[in-house]
Design a protein that fits this description.
Blueprint: H1 2-13, H2 17-39, H3 44-65, H4 72-82, H5 90-112, H6 120-126, H7 134-145, H8 148-163, H9 165-188, H10 197-224, H11 229-232, H12 238-261, H13 265-276, H14 278-295, H15 304-328, H16 333-343
């Protein structure tokens, strides 16, 4: 019913696309920040590592106390390793980024192909994480509908898995590769709107459209195989893995064209304000959602279609308050904390 169509809509248009886009932008931001510092005669490397050390701390607190799906800690860890590559050429960064990005896909394919002909008992032994039994699902719901302690115990178990086995086997290669490609796209002028309009339009047509079709084909593939583990757990995820990259490039092209067109300046200004408060808005989404689903005990109760209403409410709220906040303050509250920790001094918070 409506829940299935909600999932299809969000999967095709959103799932992994914005994580991909933000990973590209994070890689670009490394160059943006360090280049500015070095032009002023400051040490880019010192600020980079202090900045990402504190991001790692914030990410770990976020993962274990609020939301196990945190992306800040993986970003910080990958940023530690990606910094030495920043001087490479545009082409070298893109090629190397694609190589790292491909490794995660390669690991999943070599894990998935043997499952096609695996004995039934092997499939049953590993099916728990793919299609959990009702008792495990109810156990998780009970934990997250309980008090903070039971929620934290449940969350810590999942966060540990996300930051160890899943990080090593999947997240690291994806994020590291995307950061390298983000540096390449920044150096080329793609992410700063310096390309001619016809080039962005070509990307939309020749990369965005096939990627959209690829992701949609993945949905058809998985439903046609009834989401069976041997087909969908590893092989079925490849459609969205690769399609999300092309769609993220398409989304970036659309934003670049909108900004260059300058026709909807009020929308651009609000999006820019949300972007200037990206860390605050990201963490606030988690805190608001934690309040709704953990605090009010709605975990496991809200229909997927109803969740879209919550998403739209939060997006609208953040688009409205971010510009107002920045009229009175230099930074979002979490950006101010992050910046002060990095600089080792209390930064000016309120505008004079």
């Amino acid at each position: 019913g409506l829940n299935r169509w909600t999932w299809i809509f969000s999967h095709i248009l959103a799932d992994q696309k914005f994580m991909t886009l933000f990973s590209l932008l994070f890689g670009a931001s490394i160059l943006l920040i360090t280049d500015k510092l070095e032009q002023k005669g400051s040490s880019g490397i010192a600020v980079h590592y202090k900045r990402n050390f504190w991001l790692l701390v914030i990410g770990l607190l976020h993962a274990y106390l609020v939301w196990y799906g945190d992306i800040l800690a993986p970003y910080a860890f990958c940023a530690f390793l990606v910094y030495p590559f920043r001087r490479l050429s545009i082409k070298s960064l893109m090629v190397l980024g694609l190589v790292f990005f491909s490794i995660s896909s390669f690991l999943e394919i070599i894990s998935g192909v043997p499952l096609l002909n695996a004995p039934v008992e092997v499939i049953q032994n590993i099916s728990g994480g793919w299609a959990p039994k009702a008792m495990y699902i109810q156990g998780e719901i009970k934990a997250y509908q309980g008090g903070f302690l039971s929620q934290t115990v449940q969350r810590m178990h999942t966060a540990k898995m996300m930051q160890t086995t899943y990080f090593i086997g999947h997240i690291f290669w994806r994020v590291f590769g995307l950061m390298l490609m983000g540096m390449s796209l920044f150096k080329s002028g793609f992410l700063t709107g310096k390309w001619e309009n016809h080039k962005y339009i070509k990307l939309l047509i020749w990369i965005g459209t096939p990627s959209f079709v690829l992701v949609a084909s993945g949905v058809l593939f998985n439903f046609s195989h009834n989401w069976e583990l041997r087909y969908s757990m590893f092989l079925g995820s490849q459609f969205n893995y690769w399609g999300s990259f092309g769609m993220a490039i398409a989304y970036a092209s659309i934003v670049a064209l909108i900004c260059k067109g300058n026709a909807v300046r009020w929308v651009i200004n609000r999006l820019a304000a949300v972007g200037r408060m990206a860390l605050t808005n990201y963490l606030l989404q988690s805190l608001i959602m934690a309040g709704i689903f953990y605090g009010f005990g709605l975990f496991g109760k809200l229909e997927r279609s109803h969740q879209l209403v919550v998403v739209l409410f939060i997006w609208t709220t953040q688009l409205l308050y971010s510009p107002v906040w920045l009229k009175h303050f230099n930074y979002g509250p979490f950006e101010w904390i992050w910046r002060s920790l990095t600089q080792g001094k209390i930064e000016a918070f309120r505008k004079s």
